[in-house]
Design goal:
about 180 residues; 6 strands; alpha/beta; Rossmann fold; disordered N terminus
């Protein structure tokens, strides 16, 4: 994996933080291999969402759309019922692993003055990885919630550890959800 040097979009301390909740969709919870630590995952994601709401930090939900099961508008495509976006919160629809690719995510973040991202969601080695790398390449300061991303892979525990280490090596901050200060 190549080392990515982020382009600085703002000086440290400038800009705002946003929480990205990636692909926490019902169909991913219905695979033959269950989501690794699903209850803990949802609990930690909701901890981050509640913390963001208290700090008046924007929460942006990402929903993947593809023809292999997460078909836009289908029951599988819907957000998990334990997530309840507020009416004013942004939802970005995507068709690529990197949530910045062919979406308006960058414009939404820019419009809110966001330069720092906290990332959580699914799946670790797919869309979470790709979006973190995409954000770092665009110059965002990225914090990955180490215990708030997962997958339905039989190797999920190893993949979580691997990508926590690899994304930290690329420049992301990696820490448990309870230790992330959203401000």
């Amino acid at each position: 994996m190549k080392k990515v040097t982020p382009k600085q979009t703002a000086s440290p301390g400038e800009g705002k933080t946003a929480l990205l909740v990636i692909d926490v969709q019902q169909g991913l919870f219905q695979k033959s291999t269950p989501i690794y630590k699903a209850d803990e995952l949802l609990q930690n994601i909701n901890l981050l969402i509640e913390s963001a709401h208290r700090a008046n930090v924007p929460v942006i939900y990402i929903q993947h759309d593809d023809t292999r099961g997460l078909i836009k508008g289908s029951p599988d495509w819907q957000l998990h019922p334990r997530l309840q976006p507020l009416p004013a919160e942004s939802i970005i629809y995507k068709q690529h692993p990197n949530a910045f690719e062919e979406t308006n995510l960058g414009e939404v973040l820019q419009g809110k003055g966001v330069t720092r991202l906290v990332v959580c969601g699914m799946v670790t080695h797919g869309c979470v990885r790709a979006t973190c790398i995409g954000a770092l390449e665009l110059g965002y300061t990225v914090t990955l919630a180490a215990d708030a991303h997962s997958s339905y892979s039989p190797q999920a525990a190893e993949l979580i550890e691997k990508w926590n280490v690899n994304l930290a090596a690329l420049g992301a901050g990696v820490k448990p959800a309870a230790e992330i200060a959203l401000a």
